[in-house]
# Entry
Amino acid sequence: MHAAPASLSRSAPETAALAQALAEAAPHLRRSVQDRPDHAPRVAVLLPCLNEEISIGKVVRAFRAALPQARVIVFDNGSTDNTAPVAAAAGAEVVAEPRRGKGNVVRRMFAEVEADVYLMADGDGTYDAAWAPALVETLTRERLDMVVGARAGVSANAHRTGHALGNRLFNRLHRLLFNDAFADVFSGYRAFSRRFVKSFPAASDGFEIETELSVHAGLLRLPVREMETPYGPRAQGSASKLRSVRDGARILKTMAILVKETRPMLFFGALAGATAALSLALAAPILRDFALTGLVPRLPTAVLCTGLALIASLLFACGLILDSLARARVEQKRMFYLAVAEREREARIGGAR
# Structure
């Protein structure tokens, strides 16, 4: 296990230093902070949960101790045990989100909670709350939009060989498809700026939401960083909600959709190339016979080859057109991302009047 860094001591001077860093480090935080009379930055710890009564109380207390100035909010995703009352007894605010799926919870969290810095973790106790101040401080000091707590030893503590293998394969696939150098694309331990949270579309429903978060950051070329953080086993008696085959298939489907939406030239170009290659493979013997005899003995195959060639051309044309539209969408997302802080400031000024 990693020892908590020395800078994570909870002394009063260092807590004050962290608050000062939050207030001064990032320009996109200064506006929203300075518009309030007390100039105090708002930090929200968001904990999506489903049937975590065994661990959630300890997790809430740990984050309250690590970030005493933060709101700790548990979003109960339709638990059938005592997750909500245990979280409330530990001092957390509890919000119910009945639609099952982590993506649905993240969408609700990002829409409903108002803060300057957001820290997201899981309620199962696998993430070390002692590293929360380091994630928040790194976000503000380096003027980032997302800091990912890359899980150290995830292969050893993922509980299942399928989970560990899936993590490695999907991380490599993500780097190949999206050209992002994330070491742990599935980490649920992340700190966000306000403008990231309020400009993130959150289209996913389940555990594939982490992939969408990473793709969104890479698509807009946002300033992000990874920090290696400890990753421990779940509390004894609790069960993982992940299903290797089901969730792996959903993540793969999400990746395919995101490639189609964000890199259509790659998606449709690959389909066009495969279709053209099949057309040429089928046409090769026909062309050879035609060169030798001047006849086309397999007319149906020749017609099929022609159809495949036309389909390949259409797929390539679709890729070109959609690539231009995708670039326009990226520009729109970028402008909306930049406008979030300004709109929030103007709304507060208007409300004060």
Summary: The radius of gyration is 25 Å. The chain has 13 helices and seven strands.
